[in-house]
Amino acid sequence: MSDVTSEIANLRPLAQAEEQKAWYWYDWANSAYTTTIGTVFFGPYFINLAENAVGGEDGRFEVGSFSLPPDSLFFWLITVSTILSALVLPPLGAYADRVANKKRLLATLAWAGSFFAALIFFATGDNWLLAAVGIVFGNLFFGAAGVVNDSILPLISDESDRDRVSSRGWAFGYLGGGLLLVLNLGVYLGHEAIGLDEGLAARLCMLSAAAWWAGFTLIPFFRLSDHPPVDVEQVEGSAIRRSFGQLAATLRDMRNYPMALTFLLAYLFFNDGIQTVIASASVFGAEELGHSQTVLIATILMVQFVAFGGALFFGRLAGRLGAKRTILIGLGIWMVIVTVALWLPAGNVPLFLTLGAAIGIVLGGTQALARSYFSLLIPRGKEAEYFSFYHAMDRGTSWFGTATFGIVLAVTDSYRPAIFALIAFFLIGGLLLTRVDTERGIREAGNDLPAVI
């Protein structure tokens, strides 16, 4: 009997490996939305729609006592979707923890997001409202699916394997997003040669990202396994009422996991710094350094593919040094990056590309390891709830960095001190991270200690 049990137990790593391969495909799927729609095409296309609606770039949207220029409407949309995500994700996480068929929930949310993303294709002329609905709900469902996807990570990997699996997922995502972006930029830049006008080319590129997201989500949907929920709160009532009851119990219980809370606070700061650098890099390159659109596009593509290798490298480094030390190394590199940006000479393409390569190396690595490290500090059975707070922290406070950037820019009238000011976010985040006792946090959460911490 013991031989049979041992033989069955030995099959678990093989089953986990198969699920991990399936799980990687969701990062491949959803990265197309981030790169093609979020990073490159939607912003300029939406601003054009908004300008058409008010008769040009000098027109205004009158909203109550506010008079808004058309290009500012885009940033208000992102703010709305961010606030919605921060409100919706925690109860969704509580619901997801009570669901055995997480792969179906993941796919349903992803397909809903891709549907709204596809609506952008039909927004033409001055129909900015349809595009607004598409991006707001596309972002909302993107974040919701991300919560479920991240909550699956602890279910398909052991503590010692978590950094490697998370890093491979991020790397796979950068590769997928980069490949589709190459194809889409080829279509967009060569639209005249293939008989398309510029607007139609942009819409087709965004539609392809929605289809890519929906299509490749089929792989985890069919190949992931169900995982029965554990340690759920016994709450009576409907699924929604039980989810809110679970959420309330978790909020009361969070004080028992101070290391997880300290990490969330550290993540608030350093992730805000990362997101603000990424959001402002193109504007910095164009406005402060005077680089052409061609150079900026080439840099974006390079960052995607360098980030693929960077995520894998950081995953291996974490296997030797532990995730916490590796994240701290990454934050040190981020501080060097924003310091170099302060002195980067205008018009120097090789140095700008070198800085972009440095960003690519640490971008995927720090984000992937933050995900796997946090998963060690949270209790079993409540992965989705805690990852919902993780994503809500990401989205609900993401304006801190951009506000700092904007204030410094307004005071100094220069992008250089504005981007250098972000060093404070990496410094504070790193200092808070040093206060996380990894071994204590893992034990408090009831998880096993990995071989290297």
TrEMBL record:
Entry membrane topology: Multi-pass membrane protein
Keyword entries, A-Z: Membrane, Transmembrane, Transmembrane helix, Transport
InterPro entries on file: Atg22-like, ATG22/LtaA_families, MFS_dom, MFS_trans_sf
Primary location: membrane
Location in or out of the cell: Cell membrane
A Pfam entry, by short name: ATG22
Keyword match Transmembrane helix: yes
GO molecular function: transmembrane transporter activity
GO cellular component, one term: plasma membrane
Transmembrane region(s): 73-93, 105-122, 128-148, 169-189, 201-222, 261-283, 295-315, 327-346, 352-374, 395-412, 418-436
Domain Major facilitator superfamily (MFS) profile: 259-453
Name of the protein described by the UniProt record: MFS transporter
The organism of origin for this protein: Nocardioides alpinus
Taxon lineage: Bacteria, Bacillati, Actinomycetota, Actinomycetes, Propionibacteriales
